[in-house]
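Chain A, query sequence.
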Amino acid sequence: MLGFACICKSLNENGKFRTITVKSASKLSDKERLNRLKSIAVDNLYNTLKILKWCVANNIHMYRCSSDLIPLATHDLGNWAWWDDKDIINMCNQIKSFAEVNNIRLSMHPDQFVVINSDKFKVLESSIINLVYHNKLSEMIGNNTLVLHVGGVNGNKVTAIERFMTNFKLLPTNIKSKIVLENDDKSFSITDVLYICKTLNIPMVLDLHYCKCYNNNEDIYELRQDIINTWNGRKPKVHISSGKDFITDRSHAGYIAVEDYNCVLEFCKNDFDIMVESKEKDLAILKLRK
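Chain A, predicted structure.
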């Protein structure tokens, strides 16, 4: 199964999402600000539903929702209780129902500012606030997967890993149950992440491009079954992309190189779902199918 993330270029404006800055929102009256925030949120959720319908029409049943569907959700804006708004609830219910009926596998990937293993209290506090938002929205739309990276090394990888596991245990159970951990392109390799996942009993998503960028000479085929086992019976997932200018370029190219796709297919053997992380989003999947 192939999937893509967030923007759907085939839908033009209906495949994009709106936002607003804190500075712009702060210039509005309380009533104007709430109306603007609600309008943006409802539009974003409506476009998400449009994207899901496009996915079904094009036989795509895996989709990563944008983290920015609810504008300024993690900021203290007084009475912005978006989760209690009837129009937002209605749109979320439509997304949840449509995804369930059409067997669409949803996920979300909180941004790089979510650093669970930070040694700074304010960063950890902000990360938890961000995860609470993602969890609340996830439960409203029927998503049960939040993909995270381990975080920073801060001079000592062993300590950083221990701090991740310690801080992870502080999270609410309904958040912990959704977290899937991914290897990254400069700090934590497959074996690093696999160790954490086995210890905490959480799934690992393998990013094959990041493995090319940063690894400890691991043999992905030797680790394949261990990665599958972390999913405890759920179908595991891999991420694929190609380097923009060269094989180990950490920046993603617009499309997937044929050799990278063939490598992924050989590794997956129909046992994994494949999330395409290319700049051209859905267009990259359509090109792969050709």
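The beta strands are 2-5, 62-65, 105-108, 146-149, 179-182, 204-207, 237-240, 273-276. The chain has a mean pLDDT of 94.
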